Amino acid sequence: MSLPKIVYNPGTGDITLQFVRGPQGFQCGWKGRVHDNVATSGLRERVIEGLDLVITFTMGAIKVSDDMDDWTTFSFWALNGHTFAFYPDAALSSHYNCVSDDEGLEWTRMGPGVYSASFRWRIVPDDHAPSGPDVVMKRFYGIAA
Asked: How far apart are the first and last CA of the chain?
């Protein structure tokens, strides 16, 4: 298993953001776009628009003097709604096109000059999309191509 990477193109060519450290609490799961109607009798009718795959994780130990600039630049670009390629394991050729589901970027102090930030990304339902969250987790751990 190698560390993940991100590839995005702000219009000047591909930029690769190689993870310096592994993400903490990496998770992937279904997030339903649903509408519930509850009758006074207590019966619920659920209308499902779709099930999206959402990746969440925290990047800890981001150093102000090291990789904070790269994460800030990428986050500003992604927060504006642009699509980027996420490789859960950079050694594998498989990637997912994602969009940020975050509302902002907030650095949390861990120590002098060291911060963390949490991220939430939605996988775009295209030809690269996996069949389920289990596939994402296996690729993250280098188990499946």
From this structure: 11
Task: Judge whether 96 and 86 are in contact, CB under 8 Å.
Answer: yes
The verdict on residue 145 lying in a domain is: no
Q: Say whether pTM exceeds 0.90.
A: no
pLDDT tens by residue, 2-28: 899 999 999 999 999 999 888 999 999
Q: Residue 142 falls within a domain, yes or no?
A: no
Query: Total domain count for the chain?
Result: 1
Residues in the chain: 145
Residue 25 inside a domain? The answer is: yes
Domain span at residue 23 reads 5-133
Residues ≥6 apart with Cβ < 8 Å to 46: 34, 35, 36, 37
The pLDDT of residue 145 is above 70: no
Is residue 67 packed enough to be buried (19+ CB in 10 Å), middle (13-18) or exposed (0-12)? middle
Whether the predicted pLDDT of 94 surpasses 90: no
